[in-house]
Structures are given as C-alpha cells and as structure tokens.
Amino acid sequence: MTLRFINIDKVISFSLMSFVCFSFFSISLTQISCGVGGLAWMAKCYVTRSWGKQMFPLTVPFLLFVLACLVAVVGAVDFSGSYKSLKRLLEILIFFWAVNCIESEGQRDKLSLLLIASATLSTLTGFYTAWETGITIHSRAEGTMSVYMTYAGLLMLALLVASGKLIFAPKENKWLGPAIILMAVCLLLTFTRQAWLGVLAGVFFLIWFRKKSLLWFMPVVLGIILLISPADVRQRIDSLINLNDPNLQIRLALWQGGWLVFKDHPLTGCGFKCIDAVNQDYPDPTGYIKKLRGLHNNFIQLAVDMGLFGVVSWISIWVVYFMTLYRRLVSMPDNSTNRRDSMASAAAVVGFLVAGLFETNFYDAEVSMVLYFIMALPLTRGAIRNNSAS
Length: 390
Hints:
0% strand, mainly alpha, 2 domains, single chain
C-alpha cells in the first residue's frame, strides 16, 4: 500500500510539472498531463480513502455554471452542434486537481516558476518570427500556438504572475526582471491589444495594492515603450484610443448583432455555437457575424449562448473567487509568500477578465486551462496549511 501511494504521488507531481511545461507548447500534451494527473489524484483518494479530506472551494458557483451550461444545451436551437461544447466543462477539474495536489509552498513556488520559465522560453519563437519576417502586423508572434491571440493570452497570464512576484517581493525575485522584459517584448510582437489592456489592468491592480504612489511611473514607462517601439507596434498602440479604429467598429457590429439574438433568448440562451445556426435570421449588414461567428466579448458571447442564467453564474465564479481571496488575504502577514502569490493570481484573473471584454478568451481552451491552474495557486492545500500555521 505504501509503495503504491508513493508511486501515485510521483505521477501526480510529474503531471503537474509537465502541465505547466507544455502549456506554452502543445495543447495535446497539456491535456494529457492534466488527464493523467487527474486520474492519479482520484486513484490516490480511492486508495487512501481520503475523499472527505479533499478541498472544493468555489463549488457552488462552479456547479451553478455547469447547470447553466446543461440547461443551455437542452434548450439549444441546434442541439447537435451545441452539446459537444460540454466537454470543455472538464477543464474546471484542473482547478480542483491543482488545489488538492499541490501540497506544499515549495511545490507551488516551483510550479509557478516553471510556468514563467516555459513562457520565457516560448518567447524565442516570437523573436525568431520577428527576425525572419520583420516586425509587422502581418507576421505576428504566435509561439507554437495556432492563433496569435491564444499565445498573447497565455503570455499575459504568465507575465502577470511574474509581475506579482516581483512587485510584492522585489528583493527575492529581482532575477525575474529579464524574464518579464522578454515576455513583455514578445507580447508587443503579437500585436494583440486586448492582451495589452489585460496586462495594464493587472499591473495597475498590483501596484494599487502594493504602493499607490508608484502609479505615477506607469505613464512614464508607457511613454518609453511608445518611443522605442517599432513603427508598426507604435501605430497599433495609438489605435487603442482611436474610436474610429476598424477593428473596434467590427466588434461594435458583432456586439449589436449579439444583443439582437440575446433579446430573443434572454433566460437560457440559444446554445453553444448557436450563432452559426441563427445568424441568417438577423440583419447583418456588415457581414461580420456570418464571417467571424464569435462575438469577441466573453459576457456577450455567454449571454447569447447561455442567457442571463449563464452570465450570472459565470460572474458569480469571479465574485466568489475574489471574496475568498480577500478573506484569506486579511489574515496573512504583509510579507508572506502566500500574500504575494495570492496577489499575483488575482492580477492574472483581472487581466483575463479585462482582455475578455474584447475577446472570447474564456472559450480558448489553452488560455482557460492555464487560468484555472493559476486560480488554484493561492488556494492549494499547502497554502492553506501555511496560512493556518501563521
């Protein structure tokens, strides 16, 4: 029994490390890692009869969201095209897997640093793209991902985790500075503005709670970035405040179309991917809805797919998450590693939510899997044990 227990622990530990290492390079290997790790976790609970000792924070909002998904699929206008999306609900298990299987502060630190290292290593592909094709919006850095927006979303999350560590513990983590610079430069090379906004929001969040007076440096840093950036990047940055920007107009057209669909299916939505089935029933003078199908906003996309029930249950996840973190933060010493990692994770979630105002990043499996993992870091078994000891 003891030998079997030790072997299962090794499988879980290896799967956690492989998950964060592969997250920037291969979705298949990432999914295999969490699948193997999840099965090993369940096997361990069965062998040790420890189900009752497992922790399940955020259970109620997650269950409400799962129920909303099931209701949306049952009432979908195209059931055959909608039910396949339910497999994405398995990603939620990554959160509970990490919460219960990261059993020490040292293991949590190692995994978060592996995530940062994986992200930093992936920037080499972005720099290679820039070196080979030049820095233009037509040759965006996309790492090993198939879409540059996915890569930008992943970089944003890792960058904010690293920034949280540096801002809340600068002496211990000053060596993270070069990694942060590499990730920030590569993020610029993705030309992905929603991820840029997410990083700005996350960094603002971190500085606000660390030392508000440092906020005066943000405009200075942004000004320097603007001055030294290549022309195409600078033009992309300038477009952030251009209300006539073509891409903003496309999003406005998509959101208006989404609103029309939502009004006809306000409570439970019309099912996942229902835009494909219903777009011909609504005016689409620009043609963007038929062409793009996605609505480039998490809230609007969820409102269309799942109605008010889905949107409210989804928002409740983030409300309960931040409330849970707040309750634990108030009892932590200012210089504790748990506080540092809690703020880093919170900043990543803030960045994700802000970026999701202009992109349906919640529907991006690579991004959402890493997000669930980062959400779990301050709530792990090791973090709770360490906080109780304090």
